[in-house]
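B., you asked whether I could sanity-check this one before it goes into the benchmark set. Here's the sequence:
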Amino acid sequence: MSSTKSSINQTDPRVVFGRQLAELRRQAGMSQEALALESGLARSYLGSVERGQRNIALLNICRLAAALSLRPSDLLQAL
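And here's what the prediction gave me:
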């Protein structure tokens, strides 16, 4: 039986974006909960974005970037 984690395509842009977001969030010293509150997004939504399970909307990328004091392009850097 394969695990869900091993079945996720590590080159999927949603996964790559999620890893980049999580790394930048950690560098900013923020928890998922703090970033969710600052950006106005639900923590459960943010967690699923970081796990590459969501196809995030441009507006939400902009909200997250603003909450992290970054440019939206910084979140897309790894793509």
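One thing to flag: The chain has a mean pLDDT of 92. Otherwise nothing jumped out at me.
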